[in-house]
Amino acid sequence: MDALVPRLLVIGASAGGVSALQRVLGALPAALPCPALVVLHIPRDRPSRIAELLDPGSALRVREAEDKQPLEVGTVTFAAPDYHMLVEDEASIALSLDEAVLFSRPAIDPLFESAAAVFGPDVLAILLTGASSDGSEGVAAVRQAGGQAWLQCPEDAEASMMPASALQRAGADAVLTLDEICECLKEMK
Q1: For the whole prediction, is pTM greater than 0.85?
Q2: Active-site residue, from 109, 122, 134, 156
Q3: How many domains does the chain have?
Q4: Which candidate, 7, 30, 118, 134, has a CA 20 to 30 Å from the CA of 143?
Q5: Active site residue 41
């Protein structure tokens, strides 16, 4: 597959997502030419240590989102506990206390939908393992805006429901194993 060079990379994961994200973030090149935003379903009622956990294994800086934070090349930004993370405009993100989506806040759909609304065809969305249908509407929005969506192959995912639901609802530009996703990401420079 030819390496796509998006202006924004958005990634969503849930059940089984920590180990999948360790591999994906480890594959991102130091010269990744776009910001990366990640939603992982995490508990609302306690601090997240996900950025601290994943930062040492990434060539990029990994941090937790703050409201009105600029979108930064060379940085992977994770949604904070109990906040949806939205792409506000081409320069910044916003945190939202809007209602939970499919019992999750942060949720993947709001991130993917807002990324599609702002960046249109210049978004690459990657949906990984998970045990809900969150992400399906977001993948549909990205593809309808002309962006690309890569889904983890449901048979390869620790929890297949999330990528399978998105595939059924919206299709995909690529359905890849985690190894294949990582290989494609290594080429993005």
Answers
A1: yes
A2: 134
A3: 1
A4: 30
A5: yes
